[in-house]
Write a structure and sequence with these properties.
globular; alpha+beta; D-amino Acid Aminotransferase, Chain A, domain 1; 8 helices; about 325 residues; about 30% helix
C-alpha cells in the first residue's frame, strides 16, 4: 500500500514528510498533477461490477495503481501544463477538462486525505473560516468585508485607536513586472486612507489587536503543536512573514479552551491537518486571524520534527 504525495517538484515541506516515510520503509509515490497530460497519463474504469475507480497513474518513471493508495498527502500541486502548441480557447477547454478529469479521478480515491482538496478549498475561504472559528468558540477580531468605502471608513473609525489591519482575502497578487505572484503583507489603515478604489473588489478590514506575540498552532489529527512567534522588527510586528530573520520562536502550551475550539474547527471542516495563526494580547487572550489548511510548518525549528513524525504516522496508519 502506497502513500501518494501530490505536490510540485520543489516542495521542502513535502520533502520532510517523504524523508520520514522513507526512513520507515513506507512506499511513497510522489507526483505533480501539473505533469498531466504531457508527461503523466491516467486510465481508470468503473462499471456495474465495480464500486470505485480501478486503474493507474503512469508517470515518466513508474506507475501507481489507484487501488494501492492507502492515503494521500495533498500539498501544493502545480496547474496542468498543456502542449505548447495549444492556445486560446482550446487551451482553456483542455485545462478545464484536465482539472475535472484528472482532479476528479484522484479526488474520488476512497482513502485518508491530508487534506482532501475540496475541504482545503472551503477552509481557505476567510469568510467561511472566521465564521466557523467563532462558532467553535474561538475569539476572532471584529472584521468587515466590503467594497463600500463609506462602510469601511465608518468601521475603522469606530475601532479603538481608529486603526484597522488591512489583509488580502487571498495570499498573492500579480507582480507589476511579470505574472509571478507576490505576497501582500498586512498593513495598518486609518479612515482617511480609504478611498473610492475600495469599490473595485472585496476588501477585508480587521480590528487591530495590540499583540504581545503571535502563535502558530499546527493540528495533525488530534495532536496540537504550538509555538510563540516574537517579532524583532517593525515589519514583522505588522506581519511576521515580512521579516523571518528577525523572529524568535518559543514552544508554548495550548490553553484548554483554545484546544477545544481547534478540535471543533477541524471536525467542522473535516481536516486532518491545519495551521492556525493567533494573535495573543498582553492580557493573554488569543485571537484567531488565519486558517491555513495547507500551511507550512518547517520554518519553526522546535516543533518541526514532531509535526513531521505526526504527519508520517497519520499517512502510514491511514486511520481518519
Amino acid at each position: 500500500m502506497t502513500v501518494l504525495v501530490l505536490t510540485r517538484p520543489t516542495d521542502a515541506t513535502a520533502d520532510l514528510v517523504i524523508a520520514e516515510l522513507n526512513e520507515r520503509s513506507v512506499p511513497v509515490h510522489r507526483l505533480d498533477p501539473g505533469d498531466f497530460p504531457e508527461s503523466l497519463s491516467m486510465a481508470a474504469r468503473i462499471g456495474p461490477d465495480r464500486t470505485s475507480w480501478e486503474g493507474a497513474l503512469r508517470g515518466q518513471h513508474r506507475d501507481v495503481s489507484l487501488t494501492d493508495v492507502r492515503s494521500v498527502y495533498y500539498r501544493r500541486p502545480a496547474a496542468h501544463r498543456l502542449h505548447p502548441d495549444m492556445s486560446g480557447q482550446d487551451a482553456r477547454w483542455a485545462a478545464a477538462e484536465a482539472r475535472v478529469g484528472f482532479g476528479g479521478l484522484v479526488a474520488a480515491l476512497p482513502c485518508l486525505w491530508a487534506n482532501h482538496p475540496q475541504r482545503n478549498a472551503l477552509a481557505a475561504l476567510p469568510p467561511v473560516a472566521l465564521a466557523a472559528a467563532a462558532r467553535s468558540g474561538l475569539s476572532v477580531p471584529r472584521t468587515l468585508i466590503t467594497n463600500d468605502p463609506a462602510e469601511a471608513r465608518e468601521f475603522v473609525a469606530a475601532l479603538p485607536g481608529r486603526v484597522a489591519a488591512y489583509k488580502a482575502l487571498g495570499t498573492t497578487h500579480p507582480s507589476d513586472h511579470d505574472d509571478r505572484p507576490q505576497a501582500l503583507w498586512t498593513t495598518q489603515v486609518q479612515p482617511g486612507e480609504i478611498d473610492d478604489s475600495v469599490r473595485r473588489t472585496a476588501h477585508q478590514f480587521q480590528e487591530w489587536v495590540d499583540k504581545a506575540y503571535e502563535v502558530r498552532l499546527t493540528a495533525v489529527g488530534h495532536q496540537l503543536f504550538a509555538a510563540e512567534i516574537h517579532a524583532g522588527s517593525d515589519a514583522s510586528r505588522l506581519d511576521f512573514r515580512a521579516d523571518y530573520d528577525s523572529l524568535i520562536y518559543k514552544p508554548c502550551e495550548v490553553p484548554e479552551r483554545i484546544a477545544r475550539g481547534v478540535h471543533m474547527l477541524t471536525l467542522m471542516f473535516g481536516l486532518q491537518y491545519v495551521a492556525l495563526d493567533f494573535l495573543v494580547n498582553p492580557q493573554g487572550r488569543w485571537y484567531l486571524i488565519d486558517v491555513n489548511p495547507n500551511g507550512q510548518w518547517g520554518f519553526i525549528p522546535d516543533p518541526r520534527t514532531p509535526i513531521t513524525r505526526a504527519l508520517a504516522d497519520l499517512l502510514e496508519r491511514a486511520h481518519p
